[in-house]
Amino acid sequence: MGISLPHILIFAVVAILLLGGGRFSSMMGDVAKGVKQFKKGMAEEDHDVPAKPAPRLQAQPPVDPNPQADLQPMEDDRPQV
Questions:
Q1: Do residues 15 and 24 lie in contact, with contact meaning Cβ atoms separated by under 8 Å?
Q2: Phi/psi zone of residue 76: left (φ > 0), alpha (ψ -120 to 50 degrees), beta?
Q3: To 10 degrees, the CA torsion angle through 12, 17, 19, 25?
Q4: Quick one: average pLDDT of 3-9?
Q5: Please, which pLDDT band fits residue 32 given cuts at 50, 70 and 90?
Q6: Contact 25, 17 (CB under 8 A)
Protein backbone atom coordinates (compact mmCIF):
# COMPACT_ATOMS: atom_id res chain seq x y z
CA MET A 1 0.00 0.00 0.00
CA GLY A 2 1.62 3.22 -1.16
CA ILE A 3 1.00 6.87 -0.65
CA SER A 4 -1.83 8.09 -2.87
CA LEU A 5 -3.00 11.56 -3.88
CA PRO A 6 -5.58 11.86 -1.04
CA HIS A 7 -2.84 11.03 1.50
CA ILE A 8 -0.57 13.73 0.07
CA LEU A 9 -3.38 16.31 0.10
CA ILE A 10 -4.24 15.52 3.74
CA PHE A 11 -0.57 15.79 4.69
CA ALA A 12 -0.27 19.15 2.87
CA VAL A 13 -3.36 20.56 4.65
CA VAL A 14 -2.05 19.45 8.04
CA ALA A 15 1.39 20.95 7.28
CA ILE A 16 -0.16 24.28 6.29
CA LEU A 17 -2.32 24.32 9.43
CA LEU A 18 0.65 23.55 11.69
CA LEU A 19 3.19 25.80 10.03
CA GLY A 20 0.91 28.58 8.88
CA GLY A 21 0.43 29.70 5.28
CA GLY A 22 3.09 32.44 5.29
CA ARG A 23 5.76 30.25 6.81
CA PHE A 24 5.03 27.40 4.41
CA SER A 25 5.16 29.67 1.33
CA SER A 26 8.45 31.22 2.49
CA MET A 27 9.95 27.75 2.92
CA MET A 28 8.87 26.83 -0.62
CA GLY A 29 10.40 30.10 -1.88
CA ASP A 30 13.69 29.20 -0.20
CA VAL A 31 13.61 25.77 -1.84
CA ALA A 32 12.98 27.37 -5.25
CA LYS A 33 15.91 29.77 -4.74
CA GLY A 34 18.14 26.85 -3.82
CA VAL A 35 17.16 24.94 -6.96
CA LYS A 36 17.85 28.02 -9.11
CA GLN A 37 21.27 28.51 -7.50
CA PHE A 38 22.10 24.84 -8.04
CA LYS A 39 21.17 25.00 -11.73
CA LYS A 40 23.15 28.22 -12.14
CA GLY A 41 26.18 26.66 -10.47
CA MET A 42 25.97 23.59 -12.70
CA ALA A 43 25.76 25.78 -15.82
CA GLU A 44 28.75 27.89 -14.73
CA GLU A 45 30.77 24.77 -13.97
CA ASP A 46 30.26 23.50 -17.54
CA HIS A 47 31.53 26.76 -19.05
CA ASP A 48 34.59 27.14 -16.80
CA VAL A 49 36.09 23.71 -17.46
CA PRO A 50 37.66 23.31 -20.90
CA ALA A 51 36.53 20.18 -22.66
CA LYS A 52 39.26 17.59 -22.98
CA PRO A 53 38.99 14.44 -25.04
CA ALA A 54 38.50 11.12 -23.35
CA PRO A 55 41.69 9.04 -23.01
CA ARG A 56 42.15 6.33 -25.60
CA LEU A 57 42.27 2.72 -24.59
CA GLN A 58 45.56 0.94 -25.16
CA ALA A 59 45.47 -1.85 -27.72
CA GLN A 60 46.06 -5.18 -25.99
CA PRO A 61 46.89 -8.51 -27.55
CA PRO A 62 44.06 -11.06 -27.70
CA VAL A 63 43.76 -13.32 -24.68
CA ASP A 64 44.41 -17.02 -25.16
CA PRO A 65 41.53 -18.83 -23.41
CA ASN A 66 43.69 -21.83 -22.48
CA PRO A 67 47.42 -21.02 -22.32
CA GLN A 68 48.24 -24.50 -20.97
CA ALA A 69 47.01 -27.15 -23.36
CA ASP A 70 47.17 -29.95 -20.73
CA LEU A 71 44.56 -28.34 -18.47
CA GLN A 72 41.19 -30.05 -18.46
CA PRO A 73 37.87 -29.05 -16.86
CA MET A 74 37.14 -30.53 -13.43
CA GLU A 75 34.83 -33.47 -13.08
CA ASP A 76 31.39 -32.76 -11.73
CA ASP A 77 31.51 -34.14 -8.16
CA ARG A 78 28.08 -32.91 -7.13
CA PRO A 79 25.70 -35.63 -5.95
CA GLN A 80 23.22 -36.71 -8.57
CA VAL A 81 19.58 -36.19 -7.67
A1: yes
A2: beta
A3: 60
A4: 90
A5: very high
A6: no
Q: How far apart are CA 28 and CA 15, in angstroms?
A: 12
27: closest CA among 37, 39, 38, 15?
15
Q: Catalogue the E-assigned strands of 1-81.
A: none
Task: Characterize 20-52 residue by residue with b for buried, 16 or more Cβ atoms within 10 angstroms of its Cβ, and e for exposed.
Answer: eeeeeeeeeeeeeeeeeeeeeeeeeeeeeeeee
pLDDT, one tens digit per residue, over 36-75 is 999 988 887 666 556 677 777 777 777 777 777 787 778 8
* Alpha-carbon distances of 51 from 22, 43, 44, 56, 57, rounded to whole Å: 45, 14, 14, 15, 18
